[in-house]
Write a structure and sequence with these properties.
single chain; alpha/beta; Rossmann fold; 2 domains; 5-stranded parallel β-sheet
Length: 353
């Protein structure tokens, strides 16, 4: 029996997770908490691959071995040299082959109890896909519904601050789920990375306690919500969050501040709505932005775009919506409104604070 191999089920047992794939592979997705220590960088990996296909496998292995050896030596000198003998790292590459094998052998020769992930990242990815199928149906979900701008995301954050279990899909997707939902400070992750982030949240949830999530469509920006999760959300208990139009405009102006001051970005996003609203209406909305009539612009977006879209989709998807309890966000409460509503929900569900 090999003692240098570990499985995906043992991920949490290691002091460090070492991803030896190229930086581009790591950027697309990786095991949560992994450290990027490539044994071949992107250019080196391309070079070795070209040699393998166009010249000979022998030459590719010879060149690759020299590059891998130098890179491993550099990582040991720069990142691992201060680790004591008890250090227990797990090493993985794409499929548990030569790249992670080389790093594991050298670390074990030094005296560290290094292990190689059996099947590599591919095995981890299969595990994530399997878990995303089985975990959502087990959850006791509560879906926060409501018109755009009612403050659903703020209520989710307030619930999390009180110790409630939440799935903040928009935070995981780095997108607010609307045509102007992109975040200027953070591009969206890849689909694989989004699913890994989601898995990391789902696997820590207690199915005996309620889990709050904001109502979403199948897509958040460019990312797809996994089908088992969206199916569970559509049959879950709902809570409807309500706010008057003035408050919704104010909340959206705060969330869309970066677009309201960046005319080019706003024009780019609104152009996606030409097919729905026609060229003349998009021109009008841009004219409102140019005249700094931002409240009027946001009010029209709510009335003419967001609210009709919400009404078309929400009732046909969320089966318990018609009988759902309603919570009102009062403008007079200021920032305390969502803390108050979170406390109300937490108390009703006996969620520990």
């Amino acid at each position: 029996m090999r003692t240098d191999i570990a499985t995906v089920a043992e991920l949490d047992q290691f002091d460090a997770l070492l991803d030896v794939r190229s930086p581009a592979e790591f950027a697309e997705d990786h095991v949560p908490g992994a450290l990027s220590v490539p044994v071949l960088d992107d250019a080196e990996r391309a070079r070795v691959g070209t040699l393998y296909k166009q010249v000979s496998p022998f030459l590719a292995r010879k060149v690759g071995a020299a590059l891998v050896a130098r890179n491993i030596a550099r990582h040991i000198d720069e990142k691992f040299v201060d680790q004591d003998r008890r250090w227990h790292p797990l090493v993985y590459c794409w499929r548990g082959g030569k790249r992670s094998g080389a790093m594991t052998i050298i670390l074990r020769e030094i005296g560290w109890d290094a292990r190689q992930l059996d099947g590599g990242y591919k095995a981890f990815r299969r595990h994530v896909i399997e878990e995303l199928e089985v975990l959502p149906p087990r959850l006791d979900m509560r879906v926060i519904c409501g018109m755009t701008g009612a403050g659903k995301s703020r209520l989710i954050r307030a619930l999390a601050a009180r110790g409630a279990q939440v799935i903040d899909l928009e935070a995981l997707a780095a997108h607010r789920g609307s045509v102007l939902g992109g975040l200027p400070e953070a591009p969206q992750p890849s689909q694989k990375a989004f699913e890994t982030r989601l898995w990391q949240v789902l696997r820590k949830l207690d199915p005996r306690r309620p889990v709050y999530v904001e109502s979403e469509s199948r897509k958040i920006g460019d990312l797809r919500v996994p089908e088992p999760l969206i199916a569970r959300m559509w049959t879950a208990s709902c809570v409807v969050l309500e706010a008057d139009a003035t408050l919704r405009v104010a909340l959206l102006m705060d969330e869309y501040a970066h677009f309201l001051t960046d005319r080019a970005a706003l024009a780019d996003r609104l152009s996606a709505l030409i097919a729905l609203h026609g060229h003349a209406r998009i021109v009008r909305w841009l004219e409102l932005a140019d005249a700094h009539r931002h409240e009027e612009l946001v009010a029209e977006l709510l009335e003419l775009h967001y609210d009709p879209a919400y009404r078309r989709s929400i009732g046909s998807h969320y089966t318990t919506l018609a009988t759902a309890p309603r919570l009102t966000v009062a403008a007079s409460d200021g920032g305390a409104a969502f803390d108050r509503l979170a406390a109300q929900l937490a108390d009703e569900e006996q969620v520990p604070a």
